[in-house]
Design goal:
Number of helices: 2
Helix content: 10-25%
Order of helices and strands: HEEEEEEEEEH
Largest sheet: 5 strands, mixed
Length: 185
């Protein structure tokens, strides 16, 4: 298997150079025709006190991975569109300092989850990180309400200009924060 983060790092550098290159003409034109928003679920699961990330499962249609913002244990919740809790995935060997977002994707035929521990409400200098782990099959919760996994890779970094209050994984790629438009990583 090819390493994921070295390739991801190339994409990150390419992405930031595209976003920050004023003469770049490769970026697509913004679409002016979007479908109206659709409500697919009303999430009210009690353990999600401050839902901060949501990503679809790549194994099971209609299943979503979610997590709380800062102050929770390092864990993900599997929910369906009826707001039924299917199970909890404990993430071993890490802390959930300020998880802001989650993404799911398929790489070389395998489903992955990417958790962005990138928030910094208090502007305290520290490493931020992206956690990469194989997505477990949500049907495994039928046999055990709680499963555990460890990240396959942890990418730690910091912003050269100091703390940023980044709110999502695309913000990490582009450097977008709540208080600033763009910065080069």
């Amino acid at each position: 298997m090819r390493p994921i983060f070295p390739r991801f790092s190339s994409i990150l550098l390419l992405g930031t150079s595209l976003f920050t290159n004023p003469g770049c003409s490769v970026l697509p034109t913004a679409s002016t025709s979007y479908a109206p928003p659709q409500t697919i679920a009303h999430i009210q699961y009690s353990a999600l006190e401050e839902l901060s990330g949501l990503a679809p499962s790549r194994f099971s249609s209609g299943v979503y991975w979610s997590h709380n913002d800062s102050g929770d244990q390092p864990r993900l919740f599997a929910l369906n569109a009826k707001d039924e809790h299917l199970g909890t995935l404990g993430i071993d060997g890490v802390e959930a300092r300020d998880w802001e977002d989650i993404a799911s994707f398929v790489f070389e035929g395998k489903s992955w989850l990417l958790i962005a521990d990138v928030g910094d409400n208090d502007a305290i200098p520290h490493d931020i990180c992206l956690l990469l782990l194989p997505e477990p099959d949500p049907t495994a919760f039928a046999n055990a309400p709680t499963l555990h996994a460890s990240p396959s890779k942890i990418l730690k970094f910091n912003y050269p200009e100091g703390p940023r209050d980044c709110e999502d994984d695309m913000g990490v790629l582009s450097g977008a924060t709540k208080s600033q438009e763009l910065t080069m990583l």
